[in-house]
Model the fold of this input.
Amino acid sequence: MKIHALSTGTVRVKHSFLFPKSGRRRQLSLFTPGAFSDPLPIHVWVVEHEGRRILIDTGETGTANDVPFAKFDVRANEELPAALASIDLEPGDIDSVVLTHMHGDHMDGAVHLGELPVLVNAEEIAHTRTAGARFFRKVLRQPLPAGVRFEPMDLDGGPFGAFVACKPLIDDGRIIVVATPGHTPGHISVLCVDDDGHHVLLAGDATDTLEQLRARRHDAVGPKPAVTVATIDRILSHGAQQPTVFLPSHDPESAARLAARTIL
Done:
């Protein structure tokens, strides 16, 4: 098994996004003046195993609109085709695509994939159809990418390790979708058991950084902070049971931890 860390540009987010206030100010502070972080990567991942190439998330595009709490820097030559070219692949070489969740910096790059289905937790797709989700997409100018074939996926494989629901993606059980709700209601992560037995967790925005995981700190975006903290505790519990490499999409250290197989 090979796991590649690729990047499609960067994003800067408000400090109040990374270190949220309490109570009602948690989300309100996202829309009031405040300092921004240094540029953070927008990672996507390619897993090569048993002759298949699975893409986890699709990154952002250069046409992305900034929002009050996030500023994007994505050039045309940093979008998904260029990221794949860095490992001598093209979009047509990808066999399967899985989204951790349906935020623009994780799904917009799917416009480069033609008719290839993009697997998304069915609960996540249902959430995007709610009135609240549609309202915020319009206000924040964050439309769903046009022409993308989002295909619902049910996590019907029962528990896996510390995670309450899963779905194996391949027959040998070494690439598994696991439920990690919080940042969004249907957020998932992809767990890969590498050739040395490490559990490599491609964690999307389950947390923004390893530091946030260890601090057991919810974010400013998830609708129910307690759900995020419960997911964090499951990840930490899994890491206590298995040698787990934790790789959030925007952590500047994720690629280095993957290369070194640094475990929790």
The domain at 2-260 is CATH 3.60.15.10 (Metallo-beta-lactamase; Chain A). The CA atoms of residues 201 and 246 lie 5 Å apart. The longest helix spans residues 225-241. The mean pLDDT is 96.
